[in-house]
Automatic annotation (TrEMBL):
Residues 125-220 form the M23ase beta-sheet core domain. The keyword Signal applies. PANTHER family: MUREIN HYDROLASE ACTIVATOR ENVC (PTHR21666:SF270), PEPTIDASE-RELATED (PTHR21666). GO terms for molecular function: metalloendopeptidase activity. The lineage of its organism: Bacteria, Pseudomonadati, Bacteroidota, Sphingobacteriia, Sphingobacteriales. Residues 1-20 form the signal peptide. Keywords: Signal. This is Peptidase M23.
Length: 241
């Protein structure tokens, strides 16, 4: 080996080690975030302490996710559907008054869009395609929290849910009521990756009166704290004629 080859080889090994270390740190951040998110959801942590921990974890997540290059050109999160699947008229199913993430499972309002499929018999199989409906990551990101715990008598409103952090856009996205998840905290996902299949899990979503849907939310990170926003325009933009 020439000295040049050896030098390049050493540089290559160093950069691999750095990427591997960053991936390990990112995974550890995500596991910690998932624990914090569960504690907030269940009201097991005081709000000021929860906010401080949330901010510190967001700073760490940002530092360890250099390799993720998400853009704000999303794909629609429900495969085979478009913005017209959103409940209400022109996105007015979204309501964030009196909502705060830190209220957890007891939160008020509906800072989300419910995206409905055609499923008359409520078996989570699309009446048109006769297939389960894939839930897709709207943009590149890393999965920071999930829950697979839901059972029929559970009072958890989100059911089987997923949270994704998108570092370039500085946002979080949330996907609730799934029947099955295909990711765990720490997984790096690409735009359009299948992350779940649509379901009816969740305290209200399971009830007969609720048509089968994805509950989808987006949050800006302001001061490293989550602030829900109405992303209807982003959902409309995904529609390609
Ligand atoms: Zn909803």
């Amino acid at each position: 080996m020439s000295s040049n080859t050896i030098y390049i080889f050493i540089l290559f090994c160093l950069s691999c080690t750095t990427v591997a270390a960053q991936n390990n740190e990112l995974k550890a951040d995500c596991i910690r975030f998932n624990q914090l998110n569960t504690a907030i959801r269940d009201g097991k942590i005081k709000k000021p302490e929860a906010k401080t921990q949330f901010q510190n974890l967001m700073i760490a997540l940002k530092a360890h996710s250099n390799q993720i290059n998400d853009t704000n050109e999303w794909v629609f999160p429900v495969q085979g559907y478009n913005y017209r699947a959103a409940g209400g008229i022109a996105g007015n199913g979204y309501a964030d008054r009196s909502y705060t993430y830190f209220d957890g499972n007891k939160h008020l309002a509906h800072p989300a869009h419910d995206l409905f499929i055609t499923d008359r018999n409520q078996d989570c199989i699309d009446d048109k395609t006769h297939q389960p409906v894939n839930i897709l990551a709207v943009a590149d990101g890393v999965v920071i929290a999930c829950s697979n715990e839901w059972e029929i008598n559970s009072t958890l409103r989100g059911g089987r849910y997923i949270w994704i952090y998108h570092p370039r856009q500085n946002i979080l996205t949330y996907y609730a009521h799934n029947r099955e998840l295909f990711v765990t905290p720490g997984d790096v996902v690409k735009k359009g990756d299948k992350i779940a299949e649509m379901g009816r899990t969740g305290y209200n979503a399971y009830k007969k009166r609720s048509p089968t849907h994805l509950h989808f939310s987006a949050y800006h990170l302001i001061d490293n704290l989550p602030v829900a926003y109405n992303c209807y325009a982003d959902l409309v933009k995904t529609y390609k004629r």
